[in-house]
UniProtKB/TrEMBL annotation:
InterPro entries reported for this sequence: TPR-like_helical_dom_sf
Name of the protein in question: Uncharacterized protein
Annotated organism of origin: Chitinophaga pinensis
């Protein structure tokens, strides 16, 4: 199966397309559905992975595919860590979400009492990042990654903290680690590009973002990063062309466009 080979190469965007095509022709193809669950997870589509897991609940996994069984077990476990486990605490947090101090205090005390709840720990990392306590955000998300090496949300929290702490070399390594899980992850490719630019790896950054552009050529965020990479590779005409394209879109984000214009005209340095 072509999709399975692509999955083995960690090319999950391409693999997902293959598995979906198989299921369209053979709706009861168990192998395609189970592999699609894994591809969905690594493509950061947890909702799809979760719903497919529910559909696949009664299906028998081929006994000769131990790797598939092992990975599905890991994905299932990681998906269970997407939401705070104590539903009462989750409801209480939702009720006080607008009160930052109360929210942080409640979440902090819950994480102390339930250190095994990785969703809560990841949420707390995000909360501390919002409060500009990037060191604690980094520490918390690093703990989550250590306990669940495939929990992708924690990677993005830590990468954000490392960026704000200006620990770019660590961020570069972590982004590469994340990308190795899915070499076609658009978000991971953009994140890696960001760290490469900040480390003046401009040529490599352009190569990286072009990989993302090949997968999602019309994605606004990909276009934004492509314009940046082109600018730092002295391809100003292409940067300007992309800026114009973004500006003329019906869903144009004026804030992002203004920021991009400042970056590619050197009014503001992206690398600082």
């Amino acid at each position: 199966m072509k999709g399975k080979k692509l999955a083995e190469e960690h090319k999950y965007v391409s693999a997902e397309k293959c598995f979906k095509a198989t299921l369209k022709e053979f709706p009861d193809h168990t192998g395609a559905m189970l592999n699609l669950i894994i591809a969905s997870y690594f493509n950061e589509n947890e909702a799809q992975a979760d719903s497919l897991l529910a559909l696949a609940g009664g299906k028998t996994i081929p006994s000769d595919d131990e790797d598939l069984q092992a990975m599905l077990n890991i994905i299932n476990e990681h998906l269970s860590q997407s939401d705070i486990q104590d539903t009462l605490v989750a409801r209480m947090l939702a009720d006080i979400a607008e009160d930052t101090a109360a929210y942080r205090a409640k979440l902090d005390s819950y994480v102390v009492a339930a250190p095994y709840d990785l969703a809560a720990k990841t949420a707390l990392a995000y909360t501390y990042a919002e409060l500009k306590n990037y060191t604690l955000a980094d520490s918390l998300s690093a703990q989550v990654i250590h306990e669940a090496p495939l929990l992708r949300a924690a990677y993005y929290e830590r990468l954000s903290a490392l960026r704000d702490l200006k620990r770019y070399k660590e961020g570069l390594q972590l982004a590469e680690d994340l990308l190795s899980q899915n070499t076609e992850s658009i978000q991971a490719l953009m994140t890696l590009t960001s760290f490469q630019l900040r480390l003046n790896m401009d040529k490599q950054a352009l190569i990286t973002i072009k990989q993302a552009a090949a997968l999602a050529p019309e994605d606004n965020s990909v276009l934004f990063m492509t314009a940046l990479a082109c600018h730092y590779n002295h391809q100003q005409n292409e940067s300007d062309r992309i800026l114009t394209k973004l500006r003329n879109r019906p869903d144009a984000d004026t804030g992002s466009i203004a920021l991009l214009q400042n970056f590619i005209t050197d009014k503001v340095s992206y690398k600082n």
